[in-house]
From TrEMBL:
This is non-specific serine/threonine protein kinase. It is a lipid-anchor. Residues 64-322 form the Protein kinase domain. Residues 13-29 have a biased composition (Basic and acidic residues). Its EC number is 2.7.11.1. The gene is LOC111005536. It comes from Momordica charantia. SUPFAM superfamilies: Protein kinase-like (PK-like), TPR-like. It comes from the Eukaryota. Gene3D superfamilies: Phosphorylase Kinase, domain 1, Tetratricopeptide repeat domain, Transferase(Phosphotransferase) domain 1.
Length: 503
């Protein structure tokens, strides 16, 4: 398939060929129960992808699919992608390197293979790579609930509560401990953007930081204000450097801001810990616990690497601070519960069908956003006589709804779409569908079901209307009806595809 296949036998390995035997799995199981996650728990085997497959999955690397920060300082972009071959309809994250980053294709493939052997529930695991010509790409599990940086620094609905911050600290420490035990101790540029939240709201560490940033293995692309002192001295990165970076993440969790380490230490200087604490917590935290976390951060930020704690010591210190172990992460994070509709589909599911079967409201929202109004053909035609001020006001309301929908302001979107619908002159199945998913994201499945049924009345053979009804029915606990509706939707979709149309 690619130029690396001759020296790396990675195509469709056996189920147990992750490069670790049972003894390694036993070794990685420490006192906190973090262990290697086998492939049958949903993590696919590591394989080589063709460039054509990844190009198709990202819609020719469309800017609409970029999920990483895009700037001149971050040339290696990350895309959200949808794999389509062999009925594998999963979302993945694809990192595309600049052509100069890895001139030696063999070295890139070997490095990817090493990271691809890792399997752990605290990691966003690497599931493949592509090495064709000058192209260098990595493929990892896609985690749908954004980054720690987004939830901590740029939150929209609620800040992260204290107990969740302590869970983030522990889970990332456990991820680093697993990597140490798997003999991959170097993690490049550990920061709040490298911490991702999965469908259940659990924090996981991106596997991309385990790859060398360049062929020399010394590149450490980060703001110098947060770089370890040894990097500033001689440009090297060591396991102790990772501990320093972990200390900066602890400061982020305490302050709710990305505070340079020297500034944070100067801010405290024997004074009150309250000077550093995130004001958005509104005092809802234990001062004793916060002081202990700050002390851990201070130890991590010691100038001399030998004076910093080990990752195992950090895990041991963070375990006793977990005081809401029985509360699921999605509740503390304020996101919808991850659910699935139990069904045996009559045929392979489309991207929308798969998202609805998995009850992935974030993915459904994104798919509806990307489809625009293409399924409203013929339902919104207006005569010249009908083009009145009332119509203009109605379309302006829809525009307000669309902007709010794009910005994930779901209550604002509901308001805009409700104004549009209440006028009653134009029937738009897409508006009903969009308002339906907004209602679900606001935990109003009854209203969501009504809108999905209205979308069906406007467009009787529109599969998306049936898919949304399936999700709403499942939210209401009517799982048998939901499964039947999902199968009906796939049948409609298949019928429409035979007619040469998409959704």
């Amino acid at each position: 398939m690619g130029c690396c296949q001759s020296f790396l036998n990675l195509k469709k390995p056996a189920a147990d060929s992750h490069g670790q035997d049972n003894s390694q799995d036993e070794k990685s199981h420490h006192q906190n129960g973090v262990e290697s996650a086998p492939a049958d728990e949903g993590v696919p085997s590591f394989i080589e992808f063709s460039f054509a497959d990844l190009k198709a999955a990202t819609n020719n690397f469309s800017s609409d699919y970029i999920v990483s920060e895009s700037s001149d300082k971050t040339p290696n972009l990350v895309y959200k992608a949808r794999l389509q071959k062999e009925n594998n309809q999963r979302w993945v994250a694809v990192k595309k390197f600049s052509k100069a980053a890895w001139p030696d294709h063999k070295q890139f493939a070997e490095e990817a293979s090493g990271v691809g052997k890792l399997r752990n529930k605290r990691l966003a695991n690497l599931i493949g790579y592509c090495c064709e010509g000058d192209e260098r790409l990595l493929v990892a599990e896609y985690l749908p609930n954004s980054t720690l940086a987004k939830h901590l620094f740029h939150w929209e609905k609620q800040t992260i509560e204290w107990a969740m911050r302590l869970r983030v600290a522990l889970y990332i420490a456990e991820a680093l401990e697993y990597c140490n035990q798997a003999e991959r101790p170097l993690y490049h540029d550990l920061n709040a953007d490298r911490v991702l939240f999965d469908e259940n709201g659990d924090p996981r560490l991106s596997c991309f930081g385990l790859m060398k940033n360049s062929m020399d293995g010394k590149s450490y692309s980060t703001n110098l204000a947060y770089a370890p002192p040894e990097y500033l001295r001689d440009g090297t990165v060591t396991p102790e450097s990772v501990i320093y970076s972990f200390g900066t993440v602890l400061l982020d969790l305490l302050s709710g801001k990305h505070v340079p380490p020297n500034q944070a230490l100067d801010m405290i200087g024997g004074k009150n810990i309250m000077l550093l604490m995130d004001s958005h917590l509104e005092g809802k935290f234990s001062t004793e616990e916060a002081t202990l976390v700050f002390e851990l951060a201070s130890q991590c930020l010691q100038y001399e690497p030998k004076d910093r704690p080990t990752i195992r010591e950090l895990v041991a210190a963070l375990v006793p601070l977990q005081n809401k172990s029985d509360v699921p992460s999605y509740k503390m994070l304020g996101i919808p519960k991850h659910e699935e509709i139990a069904l045996q589909p009559q045929q392979p599911l489309s991207a929308m069908g798969d998202a609805c079967a998995r009850m992935d409201l974030t993915a459904i929202h994104q798919l509806l956003l990307m489809s625009h109004y293409k399924d409203d053909d013929g339902s919104c035609e207006l005569s010249f006589q009908e083009w009145t001020q009332q119509i203009r006001d109605m379309l302006e309301a829809r525009k307000r709804g669309d902007l709010a929908f794009r910005d994930k302001d779901f209550r604002g979107a509901i308001d805009g779409y409700t104004t549009f619908i209440d006028v009653g002159n134009i029937l738009s199945p897409t508006v009903y569908a969009r308002r339906s998913i907004c209602y679900m994201l606001c935990d109003k499945p009854d209203a969501a079901l009504r809108d999905a049924m209205q979308a069906q009345l406007v467009h009787p053979e529109w599969a998306i209307a049936f898919y949304l009804q399936a999700v709403a029915l499942a939210k209401l606990g009517m799982h048998k009806d939901a499964a039947d509706m999902l199968n009906e939707a796939t049948t409609l979709e298949k019928k429409r595809h035979r007619g040469g149309r998409g959704y």
